[in-house]
Amino acid sequence: MLFLQPLLCVAALVLPDEPAQRSAFLAVTKVRLETTADAPLHTIVMRDGLIVEVLTADQPLPPEARVHDAEGKLALPAFVDAWSGVGITTPTPVADRDEAPDTEADAPASMRVAWRRGIQPSVRAAVLYAPDKKDLAKHREAGFAALVAAPSGQYLAGRACVVTTREAAARDVVLAADVYDCASFDAPGGGYPSTLMGSIAHLRQFFLDATAQRAWVQRAAAGKAGPRPPFDPELTALEDALAGRRRLAFEVSSADDIERALRLCAEFGFQPLVLDARGARMVAAQLGAQRVPVILSLDWGDEVEDPAKAERKAVEGEDASWMYEEPLRAREDARRRWLERRDTALALREAGVSFAFSARGVEPKTVLERVRTLVAAGLPVQVAERALTTEAAKILGVEAAVGSLAPGKVAMVALWSAHPLLDEKAQLHALVVEDALHRFEVKAPKSKSEGAEAAPKLESAAGAWSLQHSVKQTRLAELTISLAADGAAEGVLRFEAKEPLESLALQGTWKDGVLALQAKVDVAGAPVEARVQASLKDNALQGEFTWIATAGTTVDPFVAARLPKRQENGQ
User: Would the pLDDT of 3 be above 90?
Assistant: First the structure.
């Protein structure tokens, strides 16, 4: 087969596969394994799609290796999308799996034996997988080398699989064929069940039938007397889940539905996994105590405007046109609920819950933007990176194959100009997916000679600020900020009242005009977390103070005016 070398650079330029005599070795040289600019350089050697060894820059390479010079780029494990619908069109289950009773002749005394609306656990994503090349390209361009193709939209939709994002036949990209069974409390169509209670009863009945089928099969295999088990692939498809060898993954968003799923799994001995989980904040402690992992959706919806900023616009006359606005308390509540959805990952981390991220419902590049937002809000970057790599692999049961750059792992290497979870300007230069090397068009920054304007110098947030509230829930008074050259920030927050606290010391970061501070303290013997998130514009500091306690979460928007130096510290 012949391949033509493209003449023009495109967004995702993949090296064409060569004939079979191509070298099995690929060496990516001059890579940094640490974020510091002066980190020592290494070489990652791969063979037949696996990482063989990581060498220092001065060690010899296999003589027959293909070489890609990374020119000092940062090498990170490629990301894993732990819950995706890419490549899967979920079939509609056949509901009638038994002989329908003649309801005109008699009234049935019991439920039907095999009415299966929305139930098809025997469906395998590894068999259905047929991706659109554009979807794979979007994932690669955001640094994803693996994704979970999962059926959805039914009570029991089938089994998910892990695939790589390179373009090849489905049989060649499946890393793990059956990683979890997909469940939910919803399915399309009319008739029974039509309520949440009916949906739970429908699932419970099927789980009871699967448990009975399992017992019948075991008795028949042992030569014991008993009814002949029916040939029913749907019932036997749950054998691994019933035996605890594969997780039952419930797609649930609200805290109530998460608790319902956990109770149902406990009743039948399933190992649960929670998908979506945007409302998991309220049950984070329960998830942590039961060691239930979560694959978290980053589809938060459109950001709800900060009411404090809206009030300031109205005062300054920035929007003279009249339009109806909800009451301030309603807008503050909407903002609080949006922040709670956004900060679910922080609550899960605090509760010790193992979690990974999903690109379902958002574009792959948006995943990186939103994870950066979480990092700015206080999620440690190491935790965020693990949620996209090692922790995702562990939850999926493929940690022996993917998630790191260790020898023996599948070759999934991303070469970045900077860390993508710390620097929004980081660009992906290349991505290795097994034995395929994908190069990407990189936009060079414009120089001043090319007409690019110099970036405006950012104002500094250092100094003392007087805080003004729309609603004085936490009685804030003054915030004094100290900044370091490396972007570290410290703050001392003083309160109008001296009880329960007179002041609070916080630590965090100052980057690109955004201040993020946090502190953890004990108040009256109870743990409390405080956060300050604010931005500086036109010499005004606007943001929110968040107080997270066992009794609940309080979000207090504020606008701060800079105090003259003579007024700082009460002078």
Answer: no
